[in-house]
Specification:
By secondary structure, the chain is an all-alpha fold. 72% of the residues lie in helices and 0% in strands. It contains ten helices and no strands. The protein is globular, with a radius of gyration of 19 Å.
């Protein structure tokens, strides 16, 4: 069992994680090339509008999609992959738009980076939504699921045509989602500023080392922390332990993303960037779909900190 656990971890860390980053890097960069490349402001706001609109539509449609494609036939499997691809494009555009809007209106300075972190994090703590900062390889979503179209919302409102559900979806997608983008941007920008700022390759490899080192350490701590959480009945204590673990995982995951993103920039056809973007976009999504991990590109939905009592919160 221990061997299988470590094998699973290595597949996630060395395949799912890098493929997810490759897809995001390729997709994000292609938007830079094709979406109003001569006007950064219009490009950013268009990305934000596309991303949030499509994400909201797919969230609102989850009940209908689940009912319409209840049978697992060939049509379902084809359309589900199309759904993953479209949803992935939407999420990347939401992040890209929000990120560039912050860059444009707050500048790319240390102060901007710090504010970008210290404002969202307390709000996420209060909303018990810090776990949503973590992406692949810290957490993955497999494509085999009884509820493939289900997207979690903060208050788990029943899927229906109601203001409660609409408000819950809007809160999750636009508000919590944008807070997460801001937090990622802040830490990422701080590493850009302070970690070998004039040496892109060393900065990339250092980020990969920091990220993997952090995640390996957390894997060693996962079992004892999980056991401790199972024994902890006090909600506040459970949330505190989970949040500490998840914030550490977030820093590790972010460094893996930043490192591999810069590695792609530096080593994959650096003299032909557009071709490089298409390659990482295609290899990323294609590899993930083959590994049944396509939904890992969807940094979407919402988990609630401290909600589980079986230790699975880490």
């Amino acid at each position: 069992e221990a061997i299988l656990r470590w094998l699973d971890f290595l597949i996630i860390l060395l395949l799912i994680g890098p493929l997810t980053v490759a897809y995001w890097r390729g997709t994000w960069s292609l938007m830079n090339v094709y979406l109003f490349p001569n006007d950064d402001v219009i490009s950013a706001w268009t990305s934000f509008a596309i991303g949030t609109s499509v994400s909201l539509i797919l969230n609102f449609a989850q009940g209908n999609l689940q009912n319409k494609f209840a049978r697992r036939n060939v049509v379902f499997h084809v359309l589900f992959r199309v759904y993953i691809y479209v949803f992935g494009l939407a999420v990347v555009n939401h992040w890209r738009g929000c990120w560039y809007i912050l860059d444009k209106y707050t500048n790319m300075t240390v102060l901007s980076a710090v504010i970008s972190v210290i404002v969202p994090i307390p709000i996420l703590l209060v909303l018990r939504a810090c776990g949503n900062l973590v992406a692949a390889p810290g957490v993955i979503l497999v494509d085999i699921s009884d509820t493939p179209f289900k997207v979690g919302t903060r208050f788990a409102a029943e899927v229906s045509i109601s203001w409660t559900f609409i408000g819950d979806v809007a809160l999750t997608v636009i508000f919590i989602g944008s807070l997460i983008v801001g937090s990622w941007r802040g830490i990422w920008l701080l590493f850009d500023i302070f970690l070998f700022p004039t040496d892109k390759k060393n900065s990339a490899l250092s980020s990969v080392g920091i990220g993997y080192g952090t995640l390996f350490l957390l894997v060693l701590l996962e079992a004892p922390v999980s056991n401790l959480l199972r024994q902890t009945r006090k909600l506040s204590a459970r949330i505190l332990m989970e949040d500490a673990f998840k914030l550490a995982a977030w820093v590790g995951v972010l460094n893996v993303w930043r490192g591999f993103w810069l590695v792609c920039d530096s080593y994959i056809l650096p003299d032909n960037p557009v071709q490089s973007y298409w390659i990482t976009h295609g290899v990323g999504i294609g590899g993930l779909l083959l590994l049944q991990g396509g939904r890992s590109v969807l940094v979407a939905g919402c988990v609630v900190d401290g909600e589980t009592v079986d230790g699975s919160g880490v």
